[in-house]
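input
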Amino acid sequence: MEQFSGTDEFYAFMDLLGRMLAEAGLTESSRRLHVLIHEVAWTTGSELLGELGVELKRIQELHDPRLPAELSEAVSRSLRFVRKYWPDL
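output
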């Protein structure tokens, strides 16, 4: 599945991605996603998407060569969604 039907589906996928990161031993990255989605009161959904994009890029830059293929694709897929709204990210 390439596209998300909207932000609700994307945010649910971020929860799944967080669990996948934790299972791969990347607990700090998993925790950071959780905090962004569930513990910060964002002013706008656009702001949340931008911050998630920054975190996804950080995960990719720090871990991508060592990520399992399924996890690497999940991060890339998520970044593609964010870039629909934040193309310069």
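quick obs: The longest helix spans residues 45-63.
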